[in-house]
Amino acid sequence: MTTATGPDFATPPGFLLGASTSAHQVEGNNLASDWWALENRPDSPVAERSGDAADSYHRWPQDMDLLAELGFNAYRFSIEWARIEPERGQVSRAAVAHYREMVRGALSRGLTPVVTLHHFTSPRWFSELGGWASAEAVDLFAGYTGTACEVLAEGVRHVATVNEPNMLALLYTLLRGRTGADGKAAGSGSGSGSGSGSGESAAGAVADVRLAAPDPQVTDILLRAHRAASAVLKAADPACQVGWTVANQVYQALPGAESRAAAHAWPREDLFLAAARDDDWVGVQAYTRNLVGADGPLPVPQDAVRTQTGWEFYPQALEQAVRHTAQVVGGCVPILVTENGIATDDDRQRVDYTRSALAGLAAAMRDGVDVRGYLHWSALDNYEWGSYRPRFGLIGVDFDTFARTPRESARWLGRLARAGRIPGRHEGLAGATGAPAAP
Known about the structure:
This protein has a domain at 4-248 and 373-423: Glycosidases (TIM Barrel). It is 37% helix and 16% strand. It has helices at residues 23-26, 34-39, 56-70, 81-84, 93-108, 124-128, 137-152, 165-179, 216-236, 258-274, 317-329, 347-366, 408-419, and strands spanning 4-5, 8-10, 16-20, 74-78, 112-118, 158-163, 241-247, 251-253, 282-285, 290-293, 296-297, 335-339, 371-377, 395-397, 404-406, 421-423. Strands 3-4-5-6-7-9-12-13 form an eight-stranded parallel beta barrel, surrounded by eight helices. Strands 1-2-16 form a three-stranded antiparallel sheet. Strands 8-10-11 form a three-stranded mixed sheet, covered by helices on one side. Strand 12 (335-339), helix 12 and strand 13 form a beta-alpha-beta unit. Helix 12 (347-366) runs parallel beside helix 13 (408-419). The longest helix is centred in the middle third of the chain and has 21 residues, at 216-236. The radius of gyration is 20 Å and the shape is globular. The protein starts with a strand and ends in a 16-residue tail after the last strand.
């Protein structure tokens, strides 16, 4: 177990410290995807279209240059199924070559690529079949994974099959509450999770999203698809480290509500964490907490400081999510923090949040929790599933000119990455109220 020196914590050798993005949120013009179809429907519930997004499909070399220059050693990005297989059975060799070049680009810049195969978006044709509710979903995803192996063969060692499957399965419940039970609504193969989108525009008419649970049928299919894809990846490269990422909700029970909170958490989070016990790693994605009382989930406290997504400012969530994940998987599966961040226009608030979150992470690591990396959400300001308003980026983006401007938070975190250290536990964190530092 690594020990801390002074106020800072020295990260172990090979520790990944970088940032994350997802294809649809930064690439732009993902024309063959179900989310593009949803955004552009005449009756679309989505407030803003993704359009050009951050134009990272063309500007990824600049993005990787910035991350490397800032001092980061890892970059998590996704490859887009809808680009690789825009029509069923039709593989775009150009798209495969594009993503292979991205992997080469990351490695040549000293950035360890962490590649996600499915980050909420699917090909439109897949969604029209029923998406993740289709009887063909497992085989179709395994087939796509086989094609993706051509990209991963360039030197990828960390692969996430599915991003936030618990949120993906939840979206089917929300969509069916609005459109019926056939699961074939446009966009039914995509969603928004705890950190990768607010979900407000896609939630349909469900009265209280906090009470909704992931669709059981879709949950089962996602579990089987994950195992099938893992088998394909291992057959292609036994050294490949495979996992998936889970939206950690940090359910906190009020006194006397412990059993209620545990029962609430099982289908929404812990089932998906337990499924990772046989994986090479599991991704933790945490942003805030959710309080649970004797009658169920509670709203955000009225006096809480909120971020641009409406979530409570609660950096302690990361430590609690990491400890909980380690407990559920039995401490035998390494953890990779694949998302953690804050939507804010105040970069000082971003630094304060991240410093506290990392201090909690250091405390967990000191206690023996096996954490292999921290990837901040997000590398860039991006399209947050219906809105460009939330600003999660370490690097600011002008969506008219596509100019990239690293924020001070990016320089600060990059210096830590270069030095191989993160902030240690600092006074006041355990009892913090969640308020940001004063300007």
